[in-house]
Amino acid sequence: MVNTRTPLIAGNWKMNLDHLQSIAFVQKLAWSLKDAKHDYTAVEAAVFPPFTDIRSVQTLLDADKLELGLGAQDLSAADSGAYTGEVSGAFLSKLDVRYVLVGHSERRTMHAEDDSVVAAKVAAAHRHGLVPVICVGETADDLEKHGASAVPVAQLHAALAEVPSSAEIVVAYEPVWAIGSGQAATAEQAEQVCAALRSALVEIVGVDAAAATRILYGGSVKAANIASFMREPNVDGALVGGASLDIDEFASIVRFPHHVGT
Ligand code: PEP
Predict the structure, then answer these.
(1) Which site from 107, 170, 218, 226 is most exposed, i.e. has the minimal number of CB atoms within 10 Å?
(2) Residue pLDDT, tens place only, 189-216
């Protein structure tokens, strides 16, 4: 398979930064990347702010013609109606949101989102022209009982049950034990699971779509370890939590091709 995939560095802010803070943050991040002459066609960068920030960030990106991508952290499986507190993919599309996280482990565990909810949300994203960033990953317990790949691969099969093979998706392999723990997987561990996920994609969507799909690694990524992950053939970027809230650190992660000797 020829690799034509543009790496994606995605910053998941989680429940951090209000809409005023988000404007200052995105401005500084964009300046920092501009100063460094960052080439967004070589490495795409996107931020995933809380819902209440999205309109502010969209307005800024649009007004200043910034090349940062915009993502949301969740969406409703439904399109509209009596779903108090939910946010429709239709509304996100109208705000020029391109990506949406689906199945993040914090949603799976704290909001009891099982594989069928994840599949319905992936389908909703597709209906509204959003690219779902489908998060899969094993817990420490799964790792011990089933090895690293079995659970993420099963989650990926389930997540894609309701969309056509032509649907554009991004997959994020995030071992749950590595998220927010400071203990990242090794590059070899990440590659092993990302390769298994790509093989699963070959079965589900075919060789060409599998070759075109970006698979990210997530879990305690920082500037000091990003280059090691990006050397692996099946790792096409990173989903970054904590380190995405530090402008210099995140900009440095985005600029991983310039890291030397790491
Ligand atoms: C995440 O929440 O998706 C994540 C990868 O977090 P962290 O980078 O902080 O481990």
Answers:
(1) 107
(2) 999 999 999 999 999 999 999 999 999 9
The secondary structure of 60-91 as a DSSP string is: HHHHTT---EEEES---SSSSSS-TT---HHH
Does 162 map to a domain? yes
Q: With contact defined as beta carbons under 8 Å apart, do 229 and 239 qualify?
A: no
Which DSSP state fits 206? -
Q: Assess if residue 158 is contained within a domain.
A: yes
In the chain, the number of structural domains is 1
Rounded Cα–Cα distance for residues 38 and 31 (Å): 10
Which member of 38, 104, 126, 128 is catalytic?
104
pLDDT attached to residue 3: 81
Ligand 1 pocket residue status of 257, Cβ below 6 Å: no
Domain of 35: which CATH number? 3.20.20.70
48 CA → ligand 1 middle, Å: 12
Asked whether residue 3 is domain-assigned, the answer is: no
Q: Is residue 91 part of a domain?
A: yes
Q: Whose C-alpha lies nearest to ligand 1, atom 2?
A: 241
